[in-house]
Amino acid sequence: MNVLLSIKPEFVEKIFSNEKKYEYRKSIFKQKVNKVIIYATRPEGKIVGEFSIDSILHDNPESIWSLTNNYSGITHSFFKEYFDHRSEAFAIKIGEVKKYATPIDPKSFDFPFTAPQSFLYVDDEYRPLSQKNEHLEELTLF
Q: Record's InterPro entries (predicted)?
């Protein structure tokens, strides 16, 4: 199973440079996911690479920060603001990263493409598997 994740371009670059080894989320996938497809949000608006999932950490935000902050790619204040008033946090430990030589413009697809607010299960051609079984409460992504 693949998932398409929307990530801000500045954090995508930190993933590719190996500065960011954890992707933080307020909610997580319900299905078992092996590969994450990276959609760089506007202004880029393209599918730029992928990574495997090493593991997913789940705990309170303070514990997650103490376990992951050396490779967070973000500031502590940004982290705290993102998880403000939350009792749980998820950190996807990024495994093997692959940057596509040529980013994929979703406008070239032969099907309608809408960037997910959080994540979307997709097949190997980036087609949505279902848009109704996602847990999409996140609005701010990084």
A: PUA-like_sf (IPR015947)
- Tens-place pLDDT, residues 14-70: 999 999 999 999 999 999 998 999 999 999 999 999 999 999 999 999 999 999 999
Cβ-based neighbours of 136, under 8 Å, separated by 6 or more: 27, 116, 117, 118, 119
Q: 138, 25 in Cβ contact below 8 A?
A: yes
Residue 92 CB-density burial (10 A; 0-12 exposed, 13-18 middle, 19+ buried) = buried
Distance between CA atoms of 14 and 55, rounded to whole angstroms? 19
| Average of per-residue pLDDT across 3-9 | 97
Pairwise CA distance, residues 122 & 39, whole Å = 12
For domain 2-118, the CATH class is mainly beta
pLDDT at 118: 86
For the chain, domain boundaries: 2-118
In sequence order, the β-bridge partners of residue 37 are 4, 50
Asked if residue 115 lies in contact with residue 107, where contact means CB atoms within 8 angstroms, the answer is: no
Q: Compute the residue count for the chain.
A: 142
